[in-house]
């Protein structure tokens, strides 16, 4: 017996040494890590995100690998308005190495497509990859190195996310905050353009006069005071206060441990770097997907809907990080902007329903908001302060790629939050239209605006080679609660998000409703014609909503469907260019 015990001790020691050696090899030898990655890939199950029948790699989702600079756009119809001068930019995922990896619509390294309009009418197109650490490493190794959303399918996906991804991050000296693809949204703060993706920190770029840009890197902490930093990835849609030029943001975590913060909100200034003022973590009973947020003149809105992380729910995932959970109720947290900064330069944590700094509202069952149109404050007849929120809302969503005609329908909703009684009420406007990508005149963001614009989604998308891409534009008069205009594109023609370009008119008096000028803008986007397989750039008039564009330009290269964009007027662009 004594001999058997000694053999057991020896066997345990040998196994421990072998495991230790294997772990050492897998954390210090990238060839071993990639070999294991390829072996696991070979066992991946068939799904809609696999290479040979993945529609997100076909048609106008197919990536473009060639980069262009200052290619002239050919004017086809109309005339460029004299009051347009500046830069239109739009970002989106553009996979540069595919291999055997599964890919979701949101997978791929970020690429910026731009249209520069100079005084005198010169219009040029450029596109360029964002040189994130992820992009540079995949370019160096000539393969897809990091985990994709589309890979989160079945047991193999779980193994890759929980085991292989940490090994790769450790080997390359990265963290989740610094390994994102930078492919979802753009926002201008100070002299920097930040590319946002809610899986990581914002990525800074600097624009140059020749319409190239320099990739500067992820910004997690205030470089002037490193004691304050982001504790969670920032969401894709931070907001800039039009009066103070301060940025407000939210974020979320998809971790499964509910004793850790699920969300955050905070604020930041920006000149040549991100200067974080405050960052507040929030404990929640679930793991909501917080893709967007909104501000009013005095408040921050934390939107916690029924789309939750699969990491916090039982079961095996099927090709996505999130699902619509009807058991998770829709709620909104409201924080004072002043409270968000009450401890300058520090981070702190508050518990759900236990903080005087965050007021929670519930009023109806499951629902989800992906993108917000606008929000503002009003005072009712009882002198109660009411926050009015307008946004496309859905009461059911399908995230696994097996879409049907009835899934993923969004309608324009009005949500009213009474800060005195704590009540939340909901109404709707135009439920016959499935919409998304709402926009408002930038000067009215966070303030009362009579008009809201949105993209009309394709109701027949289950029979086409697209993923519910826009087929038209809709204009809402939310004061009168009417739909004023709709514009539809020709059959087989689809747009991206419409980006508002303010007309060069007098300043807007946000306190005078009678002079509301929230439709004094142009709406621009890349337009893809699936019949000719070509891309155009269109300008529409937001005041007249004439179905004929103000101007149409032919783009010299195909521009894939992307994510979100922004407009930078020329004087602001020059200040960015000159302040390196």
Shape: globular
Distance between the terminal alpha carbons, to the nearest Å? 76 Å
Structural class, by secondary structure, is mainly beta
Approximately what portion of the residues adopt beta-strand conformation?
35-45%
Got a strand count?
A: 36
Major beta sheet summary: 6 strands, antiparallel
Gyration radius, rounded: 24 Å
Q: How many H/I helices?
A: 5
Verbal overview:
- With about 575 residues, this protein is mainly beta.
- The protein is built from five helices and 36 strands.
- Strands 2, 31, 32, 33, 34 and 35 form a six-stranded antiparallel β-sheet that branches. A five-stranded antiparallel β-sheet has the order 1-5-4-3-36.
- Strand 7 and strand 8 form a beta hairpin.
- Helix 2 packs antiparallel against helix 4.
- About 5% of the residues have low confidence.
Give descriptors for this structure:
mainly beta; 580 residues; globular; 6-stranded antiparallel β-sheet
Brief summary:
The protein contains five helices and 36 strands.
Give the arrangement of secondary structure elements.
Layout: H1 2-28, H2 30-41, E1 68-72, E2 74-78, E3 86-93, E4 110-117, E5 123-129, H3 133-141, H4 154-172, E6 185-189, E7 192-196, E8 203-207, E9 213-218, E10 221-222, E11 225-229, E12 239-240, E13 247-252, E14 263-270, E15 274-283, E16 294-295, E17 299-304, E18 307-309, E19 322-324, E20 331-336, E21 347-351, E22 358-361, E23 374-379, E24 385-393, E25 411-418, E26 424-429, E27 435-439, E28 451-457, E29 470-477, E30 482-488, E31 493-495, E32 499-502, E33 521-529, E34 534-541, E35 551-554, E36 565-569, H5 570-578
Parallel strand pairs: 15-21
Antiparallel strand pairs: 1-5, 2-35, 3-4, 3-36, 4-5, 6-7, 7-8, 8-9, 10-11, 12-13, 13-14, 14-15, 16-17, 17-20, 18-19, 20-22, 23-24, 24-25, 25-26, 27-28, 28-29, 29-30, 31-33, 32-33, 33-34, 34-35
Helix pairs in contact: 2-4
